[in-house]
Specification:
With 411 residues, the chain is mainly beta. It is built from five helices and 26 strands.
Length: 411
């Protein structure tokens, strides 16, 4: 069980540590040395701490957490040094063995999350993947019934919408989470639904969460928008969505904007709504299926750093990406995937990963559950990975890269 603010969090265990830049490590000799012969023993070379830092950057998070107990300087470096943590993350993005898949069952009707996490490499190596389930209970919310508000991920971190007022900031690599301050209720009534989107603002080196809430009291069902900067204890109100629409979970592929796939009720049209956080303004973007007024069989996501739409057709699914952000003319069909002949197959969900040898990891849906499948373009074959210890209900899959950054970090 994980609890926020427990001993070992970044803010509790670094005040008395000495700066690691002045410490040198002396390797321990494998041969026995007694006080009588220690004077004659040759001195062992010391290892500069800068070199230690470089070596530790190549070690996965799981083992780094164990190495925190080696000495105070290592503990400080791994658990609190933000420069090291960010350097480790940048390197992790280039290494295939640092890539994880996390599965989150939905919907949530209980006061807990059960997260299933495993390495991506186990899927593509045709290994029998054993899932380690992680369960988080929220005693602070024991008086409220939880309702799921979506999952958003960015740079190895996750934002889970708990209900219309609350969200959770979580790093699965180090198993630490932080409950964000609640949204304020709108006057006269309350929010009936809130979608949370997590983004990383490169210029401020900080995470930002944007919440879009439907206010039930408004005759036009006004969509209120708030933003929260990690490390603060408040939400800032920004310009509301200027027209009535139905909003799906948003994504962010650059530093200043968030995009949602929305249904414009007045015009009976699915489109992309883009919010520029720097200018506090909205922009409508068309997508490849904009001429199909009632086309709703679409998945909106990020793929290869671009906006992506998966269009579900009777015999196949088309995968489109916007190669140049904001340019409606740059939509390109990346590939098409034939529908599976699997007996209970209903539709494809998200495209999760495309390997260098043209294998595509996808989510597919049946009438009762969702599963994972790997499609091999070169051989035109499907492979459904065998995964142990996972619930057969609907799950939300997300890819993330290992990260040491704590939700309690000060930016």
């Amino acid at each position: 069980m994980m609890t926020a603010g427990s001993k070992g969090d970044a803010e509790n265990n670094g005040a008395s540590y000495q700066s690691p830049t002045v410490e040198k490590l002396t390797p321990i000799s494998s041969s026995s040395t007694t006080p009588d012969n220690s004077i004659d023993a040759p001195s062992l070379p010391t290892l500069p701490f800068d070199l230690v830092t470089e070596i530790l950057c190549w070690i996965p998070v799981k083992f780094l957490l164990q190495l925190c107990c080696v000495c105070k300087s290592w503990n400080y470096l791994i658990s609190q040094d933000s420069k090291f943590q960010k350097k480790h993350f940048r390197l992790s993005t280039t290494l295939h063995d640092r890539l994880h898949l996390i599965l989150t069952p939905m919907p949530y009707y209980f006061r807990k999350f059960i997260l299933s996490d495993f390495l991506m490499s186990s899927l593509f190596n045709n290994n029998l993947s054993t899932i380690t389930s992680r369960q988080i209970k929220y005693s602070v919310l024991s008086t409220r019934k939880l309702s799921f508000g979506g999952v958003s991920s960015c740079h190895g971190m996750f934002c889970f919408g708990i209900d219309e007022l609350s969200a959770l900031f979580f790093n699965p690599s180090i198993r630490k989470f932080k409950l964000l301050p609640p949204l304020e209720n709108p006057p006269q009534n309350h929010y009936v639904q809130t979608n949370y989107t997590l983004m990383y603002h490169r210029f401020t080196n900080n995470y930002k969460i944007v919440a879009v809430s439907v206010a039930s009291f408004a005759k036009s069902r006004q969509l209120n928008v708030h933003s929260h900067i990690l490390g603060t204890n408040y939400w800032t109100r920004i310009q509301s969505v200027p027209f009535y629409c139905r909003v799906r979970v948003g994504i962010s592929v650059n530093d200043d904007t968030i995009d949602w796939l929305v249904y414009d009720v007045d015009n009976c049209l699915w489109l992309i709504l883009s919010l520029d956080l720097e200018k506090d303004s909205y922009r409508k973007l068309l997508h490849p299926l904009s001429n199909d007024k009632y086309e709703s069989n679409m998945v909106f996501q990020e793929l290869k750093g671009c906006l992506c739409i998966v269009s579900q057709r009777p015999s196949h699914s088309d995968v489109w990406i916007m190669k140049e952000y904001g340019n409606e003319q740059s939509w390109t069909k990346l590939f098409s995937v034939p529908n599976m002949t699997y007996l209970e197959f209903y539709a494809y969900g998200r495209i999760l990963y495309v390997s260098e040898d043209d294998q595509v990891l996808m989510q597919f849906l049946t009438r009762k559950k969702s599963s994972l499948v790997i499609y091999d373009f070169r051989n035109d074959t499907f492979n459904i990975p065998k995964i142990q210890n996972i619930n057969d209900d609907l799950v939300i899959p997300n890819i993330y890269v290992e990260s040491l950054i704590s939700p309690f970090s000060q930016y």
